[in-house]
Amino acid sequence: CQEEIHDEVSSENEGNGSDKIETPNSDEDSRKNNTLGSGDGNGVTESSDHIECNKASQSEMSTKERQMQTSPPETRDKFSQTKESDLYKELNKKIQDLNNQLAASIKDLSILTKELADKEATIARMENSHKMTISHMEQERQKLVEFHRVFQDNVKEQFSKNQMELKQTKEGLLKEMKDMNAAHVMEIAKLIKEKNSLLKEKTELKQSLNSMANVEEEFESKYSMLQKNMKIMIQKAQHSHLQTIKSYWERQITSLKMRSIEKISNMQSWFSMFPPAELEDLPSWGQIRQNTVQCSDFHKTIQQMEVKFQARCDELEGKIARGEVMEDLATQLVLTLPDEPPPLPLDKIHKEITEKHLKKISE
Fold it and tell me: Are 248 and 176 in contact (CB under 8 A)?
């Protein structure tokens, strides 16, 4: 619009014979105006303003041209200069408006650049925080792995030690029981031999001393005393044998019960290290729950076996006290000990916990 107006003004000046008025920087200002207008978001509005300006200028030019054609040459020169001055003012005003818009755009760009820098700094801080969190979780995982390794080594060492002690105790008690059984058998055989010898002697005395009633009565008294003493000795031997067997099985039951209590205590201590919700979400929670129930049932079974064994021992002690001869006590008091439940799969559980923590970290 500005270039067309400038060309029209120049053509009028040339047509009227007046000197050509130079318009420095008008083309450059026009290019700046077009460039700024294209960079701003109001380019469409400015284009419509240019069209209206062009129409108004053409209408004004046609009116003024008619006036100039009817006016004298001096009036036409003066009119041309006035028109060109108004155009310069209008162009300068538009250039000033565009410069103001450019300054506002630069200010907005500076604000957006500052916000972008702040967001980038926030992102950097968040990345550093996430890296520190991941590093801390990795250290915690290493601590858990080390604790599990030490705990597993201690459990294996204690289990091996208990097995060795149990084996040595069992072998010692079995050897002691065999020796005592052999001694008791020899003692009973000796008593039976003495009894047979006395019976034989009694028969011989009866045959040879039928008339000696006093001697026979004395013999009967000795025989009765011998039977009584033999019964007492057999009773003591059986009671001692029963106490030995009872002591052996009581130690076995006590050992199983203590190991069961220790295992349950270790499981409770291990469970206390983790929140219940975290353990219940594990894939192996069913196996953990089953192992816990097995340990509890094993402990109850041991307690019931202990009660029944004590009742059986009391019954046998009553029979021995009444003078009843009990044969093969070791067979009557044989116990079938239950198998201990398997240990917790700590390796699998720790692996699942570690994978769960790593998954949370990655999320």
Answer: no
